[in-house]
Amino acid sequence: MRIICSETYEQMSAKAAGFIAAQIHTKPNSVIGLATGSTPIGIYQKLIKWYEEDWLSFSKCTTINLDEYCGLPADHPQSYAYFMHEHLLDHIDILPENAHLPNGLNEDIHAECEAYDNLVKSLGGIDLQLLGIGNNGHLGFNEPDDCFHMNTNCVNLTPETIKANSRFFGSEEAVPKKAFTLGIRPIAQAKRILMVVNGLHKAEIIYKSLFGPVTPRVPASILQIVPDLVVCGDAEALSVIVREHPEAVEMF
Predict the structure, then answer these.
(1) What would the CATH number be for the domain defined by 2-251?
(2) What are phi and psi of 73, to 5 degrees?
(3) Which residues does residue 193 pair with via DSSP β-bridges, in sequence order?
(4) What are the structural domain ranges in the chain?
(5) Contact by Cβ (8 Å): 219, 143
(6) What's phi and psi for 103, nearest 5 deg?
């Protein structure tokens, strides 16, 4: 595990984007796992800039998104499909058929989950998985539970997650209560995992995830056992780790 601390969000985003760019340069047909949320936006802006400068191409890449709300069409402004097109996919040269998200409108939940797992398997797994972390330690929408949910599944969102996401919908009532999410197995089996975290409000949960017990009550704690984990965070998010385990942190 590498933990890289940057002074600012902008520096963190540039460092993390560099890992993704290096992955694509060394393997142009990489399978890249993508995440939504506010934290990756700076990374996507940097990748778009490098594409526009003809320094980076996504033409041979395949992307797999972590999750999608149940019941939202892809053109809904709060769907994750919409988010990805707005913040990355519409601004790079990836082939449309190579950018994948769960179908939030598929009413056959079992079939959708099985198809998504089979898609990842058919691609040979994920080469680099970009992750954020939820306030309660969730990965994608793998919420705290009594067991790790290994395969792609449809989950009931916790009240904490619904409250955290209500800022995007205007109210808690408007937030979908279920979501499809990639399971712990394909996430943890990614050849490299790149986690990004920013802000003081994430300091305790990232510390608990990386240095506490491995438990499904903190889904992100499973990352302690993956063979190639890189964590890029800003100074606020990594403040507890820097205080408690300064020897574990690379300053950037």
Answers:
(1) 3.40.50.1360
(2) -70, 160
(3) 129, 229
(4) 2-251
(5) yes
(6) -90, 105
| Encoded tokens for 249 | 């942190």
pTM over 0.85: yes
| Per-residue pLDDT of the chain in tens (252 residues, 90 and over written 9) | 999 999 999 999 999 999 999 999 999 999 999 999 999 999 999 999 999 999 999 999 999 999 999 999 999 999 999 999 999 999 999 999 999 999 999 999 999 999 999 999 999 999 999 999 999 999 999 999 999 999 999 998 888 888 888 888 889 888 999 999 999 999 999 999 999 999 999 999 999 999 999 999 999 999 999 999 999 999 999 999 999 999 999 998
Token pair belonging to 171: 């109210």
Cβ neighbors of 209 (< 8 A, separation 6 or more) are 133, 137, 218, 220, 221, 223, 224
What angle in degrees, to the nearest 10, is found between the helix axes of 41-52 and 80-87? 40
Q: Which positions are catalytic?
A: 67, 136, 138, 143
Structure tokens that stand for 193 in this block: 């995992």
